[in-house]
Known about the structure:
The complex is a heterodimer.
Chain A: E1 5-6, E2 15-19, E3 40-41, E4 48-68, E5 70-78, E6 87-93, E7 102-123, E8 129-139
Antiparallel strand pairs in A: 1-8, 2-4, 3-8, 4-7, 4-8, 5-6, 5-7
Chain B: E1 3-11, H1 18-26, E2 42-50, E3 57-65, H2 72-78, E4 84-90, H3 94-98, H4 100-108, E5 118-123, H5 135-144, E6 148-151, H6 162-185
Parallel strand pairs in B: 1-3, 1-4, 4-5, 5-6
Antiparallel strand pairs in B: 2-3
The structure holds guanosine-5'-triphosphate (GTP) and magnesium ion.
Domain F5/8 type C (chain A): 19-124
Keywords (chain A): Calcium, Cell projection, Cilium, Metal-binding
GO molecular function (chain A): metal ion binding
Amino acid sequence: xxxxxxxxxxxxxxxxxxxxxxxxxxxxxxxxxxxxxxxxxxxxxxxxxxxxxxxxxxxxxxxxxxxxxxxxxxxxxxxxxxxxxxxxxxxxxxxxxxxxxxxxxxxxxxxxxxxxxxxxxxxxxxxxxxxxxxxxxxxxxxxxxx
Amino acid sequence: xxxxxxxxxxxxxxxxxxxxxxxxxxxxxxxxxxxxxxxxxxxxxxxxxxxxxxxxxxxxxxxxxxxxxxxxxxxxxxxxxxxxxxxxxxxxxxxxxxxxxxxxxxxxxxxxxxxxxxxxxxxxxxxxxxxxxxxxxxxxxxxxxxxxxxxxxxxxxxxxxxxxxxxxxxxxxxxxxxxxxxxxxx
Lengths: 146, 186
Ligand SMILES: Nc1nc2c(ncn2[C@@H]2O[C@H](COP(=O)(O)OP(=O)(O)OP(=O)(O)O)[C@@H](O)[C@H]2O)c(=O)[nH]1
Ligand SMILES: [Mg+2]
């Protein structure tokens, strides 16, 4: 038995392996620092995306995404060693919430992934922000060296 | 330091000089297209604009669009989620000025954003004797529709950079405002 915890943290070895926007004041690493106050911003045209890589295969039950002004969000997963061969696992139209963060939960029972890809297809404004991604799950400790 | 990317819709009636302005801007004034070559659908022209007094820049993806109705159906799809708008008319062609309301409405219909920075450009000011749209009239209409107004002559290479640079600056300002707004409530 392993207990569930947030595996989407840089302190757990998670990293952003790709992001289509980068303002060095609001880098994509802010998504994985465990804080809602820090964020990553998109810097123009849509779609935009970012890919989170885990330190090994992860089992994920639930994802929670904190964002602002995102309209359509698609999530894909990969179980490959490299960020390729993504399969769609969720898609949602979010509600506009002017002046406060959007908190959206995605139930993904039995989902296994080494990478998660988040595609922001459309937005409620010219720029959106992603504050935090939380993943309730655990790491398969097969290849863990930490 | 940040590099923003803006989808700039360049729209207006046929032959008002949209492609000519875009090509001049792209080539820093080196290329004036004398003979008319109709744009088929949309041409995308890329140009990076540095924002003065910052280390930031805006990459403009200029969607140089045809003024011909037959291409409108295709263009409408390509215009989804625009960032900024450059609306052009010909100061010697009143019909092209009257069409601006239609083009503006069409582009605004493609976005949910509360703000779409835009400019109105009266081109061909070199055709002095043939002018039919007065500056004041155009300026008033632009102000009513929250557009900044500029006059250009692509032929004389006058003012052709200003509309694009202004749009890049507006987009950059919007980004700063949005980021500050987010920081104020997190
Ligand atoms: N006199 C004068 N002619 C111009 C000016 N700008 C463009 N032209 C001419 O106007 C004609 C049409 O220009 P284009 O830039 O192709 O027009 P357009 O708006 O792109 O037209 P479509 O692609 O069909 O929508 C060309 O022959 C240009 O040389 C100008 O400032 N003054
Ligand atoms: Mg053209």
